Amino acid sequence: MTGSDLFVKCLENESVRYIFGLPGEETEDILFSLEKSSIKFIPTRHEQGAAFMADMWGRLSGQAGVCLSTLGPGATNLVTPIADANLDKSPMVAISAQAGIQRLHKESHQYINLVDLLRPVTKWNGTIAVTEAIPEIVRKAFKMAESEKPGATHIEFPEDVAGESCKGEPILSKRVRRPDPDESALNEAIGLLKQARLPLIIAGNGAVRKLASQQLTELVKKYNIPVAHTFMGQGAVLDSEIQSLFSIGFSFRDIIMDAVNQADLVIAVGYDIAEYSPDAWNPRRDKKIIHIDFTPAEVYTHYQPCVEIVADIPATLKALNQKMDDSHLIFANWYQDVRRRIIEDRASYALKEGQRFTVPGVLSILQSMMGKDDLLISDVGSHKIWVARNFSACCPNGCIMSNGLASMGIALPGAIAAALHSPGRRIITVMGDGGFLMNSQELETAKRLNLAFTTIIFNDNDYGLISWKQQMSRGRSVGTRITNPDFKAYTESFGIKSYRPNSVVDLTQQLKHSLDLRELSVFEISIDVSVNQDLIKRLNIQRKG
């Protein structure tokens, strides 16, 4: 048995099903060891695409997604997705080849100190210097990646170590039990709730990631507490529940802030500061805060909890539901006017025949077609703001976007991972023209794997989010305009069905046809972006400067 054989046995022990990556000379031993394995290696068209697939696999499954690269430029291409997984709290293990041990101490062809390079963007990383360390390093990488809060780890595997003869066995993988909530902290939190008149919950990424949705929904319905979702917390409580105030996290003052400003107590459940700064919702630092999360609160001037319940989130919510059995704690419908205004505002963007396409208008059509288990994956751009604001997840983790690192180019590779993870699920991915071309080459990967999902490209020939923000700040935009290929012809060159609807009727019929057929398809939709500035006027937001 070689070092690579033992390495692959350890990956099998971690229940790895797929490894996404690019081959290289230095990964030869690993690839041939994988040939005999139950693990399927999926060659992708770029290392960034491979790592985004691993990132999305982790988000959907809760188990670490795995990507593989060769040394040097292959490994440096992993940096952005690794950082994305780490800030989005997605479990991922990145594996990179490395030059032989005998040349790591000196300048050498394609050699870069990858452990030092990736240290700032990983929870942990290390080098396999001897074959005896393989079982421990693999187990540690997966344990660290999957432990709360999840994130990215990295293993560097020198080519000579991979080829060495060795003996060894994988280390048994056991589930680590997370602690139950502290009784005193629970009582203190309940005391704060009894004193509150206008409590509000902010549900973050952690409220969705560990399926705390059921307990959270019970809590908000039982005591009539409104809940605002961060972008990555969408679906923790479904928007169909009257307690949902939809999403929070915009860089402008949206309708939901009227409720947030009134709240005299904020219960932060699985809230990640990296996603949305508390400066925005607690500018005067006068909010009473209850922190419920797997880890202690970050030390932050605008986020100073009165009490921290550091424990398993579902267990904490369940304990609150059991201990707060008090009918006197049912709160008034103080937030319902805000919810009504949000619903009316969202409905106003529905498209009529003859109107130009807008992002919120298209999302309205898409929303009407979504089933309870369907998944929407959003790339990063101006459309992401509209997805967060005007689209409702159909189930917990039913609307996924990157909002920690907020990296463009994640959605198309992410849809590939989602289709592999849940082949029976209808998957729609939306992106701008800028984000699409960052990883559009992965269309070939999707076609080769015979996967089915629908891609929607919102085309405005612009880096639209930056243009929007420049317009808000300066009244004009600079350096954002781009040109694009014929997306329909480009897509069809891969042998993939492509649509370019010209009317609301066309779009509705073609979308329904594509989703019903479960085909791999791409829609190019030219959009009217004036709706972006109209929103700012509607909300009466004053331009800076």
Q: In what order do the strands lie side by side in the largest sheet? A: 2-1-3-4-6-5
The averaged pLDDT comes out at: 93
Which CATH class of the largest domain applies here?
Answer: Alpha Beta
Using only CA atoms, what is the Rg? Answer: 24 Å
Describe the 3D structure:
By secondary structure, this protein is an alpha/beta fold. It folds into 3 domains: 3-163, 3-Layer(aba) Sandwich (Rossmann fold), CATH 3.40.50; 183-338, 3-Layer(aba) Sandwich (Rossmann fold); 348-538, 3-Layer(aba) Sandwich (Rossmann fold). 39% of the residues lie in helices and 16% in strands. The strands form 3 sheets. It has a 6-stranded parallel sheet. A 6-stranded parallel sheet has the order 9-8-7-10-11-12. Strands 14-13-15-16-18-17 form a 6-stranded parallel sheet, sandwiched between helices. Helix 7 (134-146) links the parallel strand 5 and strand 6. Helix 1 (3-13) runs parallel beside helix 7, helix 11 (213-223) packs parallel to helix 13 and helix 15 (359-369) crosses helix 16. The termini are far apart. The relative contact order is 0.10. The model has no long low-confidence stretch (mean pLDDT 93).
